[in-house]
Specification:
Blueprint: H1 20-25, E1 37-42, H2 48-61, E2 66-70, H3 76-87, H4 93-117, E3 121-125, H5 128-138, H6 143-154, E4 161-166, H7 169-175, H8 187-203, E5 208-212, H9 217-227
Parallel strand pairs: 1-3, 1-4, 2-3, 4-5
Helix pairs in contact: 2-9, 3-4, 4-5, 4-6, 5-6, 5-8
The chain binds thymidine-5'-phosphate (TMP).
Residues 44, 71-72, 86, 100, 126, 130-131, 134-135, 180, 182-183 line the site of thymidine-5'-phosphate.
Amino acid sequence: MGRVDFIRPPYVNTTRVPGDRYRLLGVSGNGPLNDRYIALEGGDGSGKTTLSSALAARLRADGNEVVEVREPGGTPLGERVRELLLDSDHVDPWAEVFLFAAQRAQLVREVVAPALERGAWVISDRTYYSSIAYQGRARGMGEEKVREINETGLEGVEPGRVFVLDVDPGMGLGRQHRPDRIGSESVEFQEAVMGAYRDLAVAEPGRVLLLDGGEPVEALVDQVMEALGR
Ligand code: TMP
């Protein structure tokens, strides 16, 4: 099968079967390239960002190229969507679902897939598992529906492994520097988010792994590296 040109945006090819582009490249939910696509998840104030930097440093010390991204954000368009999502006074719950999915589609095609294709690792501070937990479960929009909407836009460019920092929601809320619109939700909301992550870890043991967010960051990096077989 011939190689697909990455430069041409996928929407130029109107006859394309959704998903084919990335399946051809081996970037699909369980394809080999996705093994280098790692997502860090958790409630607000769970320490993902600190873990992301420490994990990136460890992988770089082993001679790897590492691209760190965050969601929402990670592209010029995505950073603007981030502001809309987190700083607006009111966002309709369905608008929230679609805006998160929109910035994610932009990120995977503009940054993630090209990085994986050239052999880099990608560490993503949040991914669509946040949408399943926050919008699907805590907002009550439906976990399967939210998963489906996101998977449509991702076309198989999904993290091979998802590490969830499990922290007590009350403690996490206290750790935030400046809570945003969603980070200011109640402890009950945060508990629902954490409950969803725990259920996802049970439902998808091959992909989603819970980590004890109370552990020192270097111990967490060791656990991630071990789970990655490195
Ligand atoms: P952050 O604080 O980790 O940067 O994330 C910003 C907020 O957005 C946080 O409260 C979690 C929330 N969020 C969702 O509700 N759904 C999503 O899909 C993502 C990526 C984040």
